[in-house]
TrEMBL record:
This is Uncharacterized protein. Keywords: Membrane, Transmembrane, Transmembrane helix. It comes from the Bacteria. The chain crosses the membrane at residues 42-63. Residues 135-161, 311-330, 341-366 are annotated as: Disordered.
Length: 404
């Protein structure tokens, strides 16, 4: 594969791997493939801009492949040469190829942080190393993504360590397994500074979908050293935009409910004759899951509650709520909107159903999502008749008990 072909592939992957919304999703064939790709490569750069960059892109920020020294402090702006040179300077001795770097505004919109990517070989096999930057809410001040370990119920995980540093910054080191013999392992370090800077470094035990070694080339400590290095300070001196989380009206931020609270409500809403069973540790606020047996069948149920989800948005989501669902949207007398759905083994709706679900938007803006599948985790599903029908799932999601 030529260098240009590899570069184009990186951009296509970037466009394809924009991260989905957090929390438990209804399990289906497309969902499982999406999670598998994220677990394999788990390196979302930016979607739309990268796709557009494939057509007529002038690579003004492509790195000089001959230099190993950091590019030094930039003058007018952060350049791709600075990004790639700095990344190279922070790696241990080894062979570096396929270097790419893009500064502020060179590949993505100026509101998105600069990025770098390369292939590193320490003598025991090649592995891709990718770095992205961004600005988010400082830790502890909002819904800052990637400042906590993933819930192993939702995401296959080898291990994860979360460290709150003395200055208030948060470091998360997560290791994701391969999902089959041809899949790559993915180790991810995410550093979120007290000022809202975020640096994420991904590495893989292979390059371009080819497994070349048992583990990724950098140790977890080496990966963390790259992410937390002060060499990235100049990036955030120039990349100073305010974080742009999902809009919320002043004073309306609500802490997601605890799993125990959600489980208590969910048990009371099960239909007569349905028997709940424990389903392991519950780790993520705003979500819960349990096993339920009804009519001789046992399925896994998940519930996600987003309090005041509709408040503070710049438009009223009720006008288009459920527009992408194949099943009709039902409006209750109290104004609650709800719909059901069914996911099959393929995106085209072919093959057996693998999951069932219902979603409701309540008058106070609370959104409730209920999912059901036959499996023991949030990313495994098997064909078979579910314990509860979709209409029963709708009744659970639309019940006023979820409102706060």
């Amino acid at each position: 594969m030529s260098f240009d072909d590899r570069f184009a592939r990186i951009l296509r992957e970037a466009a394809d791997l924009a991260p989905g919304p957090p929390g438990p999703a209804l399990v289906g064939g497309a969902e499982r493939r999406g999670r598998r790709r994220r677990a394999r490569r788990h390196a979302a750069l930016t979607a739309g801009a990268c796709a557009l960059a494939l057509v007529g892109l002038t690579v003004t920020g492509a790195a000089d492949l001959g230099s190993r020294d950091p590019a030094g402090r930039p003058g007018d702006r952060i350049t791709g040469t600075f990004m790639s040179g700095t990344l190279r300077s922070l790696l241990p001795p080894g062979q570096v190829t396929d270097v790419q770097g893009f500064g502020i505004g060179e590949l993505t919109a100026p509101s998105r942080g600069p990025i770098a990517s390369l292939v590193f070989d320490d003598g025991r096999g090649r592995g891709i190393v990718r770095l992205i930057t961004d600005r988010v809410d400082p830790p502890g001040t909002g819904d800052t993504a990637d400042t906590r370990c993933p819930d192993p119920f939702q995401t296959p995980t080898e291990s994860c360590e979360r460290t709150v540093r003395p200055d208030g910054s948060v470091l998360v080191v997560a290791k994701y397994p391969s999902r089959d013999p041809d899949d790559q392992r993915n180790w991810v370090v995410t550093y979120t500074g007290a000022d809202g800077r975020r640096i994420r470094v991904d590495e893989y035990n292979g390059a371009y979908d080819t497994v070349t070694r048992e583990e990724p080339p950098l140790t977890a400590d080496q990966l963390a050293a790259v992410a937390t290095s002060p060499a990235w300070d100049p990036v955030f001196e120039q990349f100073t935009r305010d974080a742009t989380p999902r809009p919320t009206a002043p004073g309306t931020t609500v802490t997601p409910p605890s799993p125990d609270l959600l489980l208590g409500v969910l048990r009371t809403l099960l239909p007569a004759g349905a028997e709940p069973h424990p389903a392991g540790e519950q780790q993520t606020r705003g979500t819960a899951h349990l096993l339920v047996t009804a009519d001789g069948r046992t399925s896994m149920l998940s519930v996600r509650v987003d309090p005041r989800w509709a408040q503070g948005l710049d438009h009223d989501p009720r006008g288009s709520y459920g527009s992408g669902s194949e099943d009709p949207v039902v409006r209750a007398e109290d104004g609650t909107l709800s719909f059901t759905r069914e996911d099959h083994a393929s995106k085209g709706g072919e093959g057996p159903a693998l999951s069932w679900g219902a979603e409701a938007l309540h008058p106070d803006g609370t959104r409730v999502t209920v999912g059901e599948w036959n499996g023991t985790t949030g990313y495994q599903a098997e064909p078979g008749e579910p314990a509860l029908t979709k209409e029963r799932l709708r009744a659970i999601a639309a019940d006023p008990a979820w409102r706060r």
